[in-house]
Each structure stands twice: as structure tokens, then as C-alpha cells.
Amino acid sequence: MLVLSFSAWANFTGKVVGIANGNTVTVLDVTKVQHKVRLTGIDALFQPHDSSFT
């Protein structure tokens, strides 16, 4: 069994277009490329919300 773990960081500007769970979001950058971003140090459970709430 091979387990890899590493940290990486990036600095970019974009718009959050999706939430996968409590600590992972999808960000659309200025060139319209989607990035899945996992936030470290966040211990949060995803809770669905009313889609009419923005």
C-alpha cells in the first residue's frame, strides 16, 4: 500500500462555484478553469442549506 501526503499552496483569485464538503470548494479562476481546493486546518461538516439563501 502506498500512501502519499503533501502540502501545496497556491495564490490565485477566483470565485467559489461549488462546495464539495465542509473543507473542500471548487473555485473558478479568471481564465475559467475550475480548481478543487481543500482547506487545511478546517474541521467542519458540510450541512446542506436552502438553495434560495445566498
Question: If you had to describe this structure to a student in words, what would you say it looks like?
Answer:
This protein has 54 residues and is mostly beta strands. It has a domain at 12-40. The protein has strands at residues 14-21, 24-29, 34-38. It has a 3-stranded antiparallel beta sheet, with no helix packed on it. The mean pLDDT is 78.
Mind sketching the topology for me?
Blueprint: E1 14-21, E2 24-29, E3 34-38
Antiparallel strand pairs: 1-2, 2-3
Summed over residues and divided by their number, the pLDDT gives a mean of 78
**Helices and strands, in N-to-C order?**
EEE
| Largest beta-sheet characterization | 3 strands, antiparallel
Shape type:
flat
- Indicate the structural class: mainly beta
In which order are the strands of the major sheet placed?
1-2-3
> What share of the residues does DSSP label as strand, in percent?
35-45%
> What is the CA-atom radius of gyration, in angstroms?
14 Å
Helix content: under 10%
- Report how far the terminal alpha carbons are from each other: 43 Å
Q: What are the main properties of this structure?
A:
single chain; 54 residues; mainly beta; three-stranded antiparallel beta sheet; 0% helix; flat
In short:
The protein has 54 residues and is an all-beta fold. It has strands at 14-21, 24-29, 34-38.
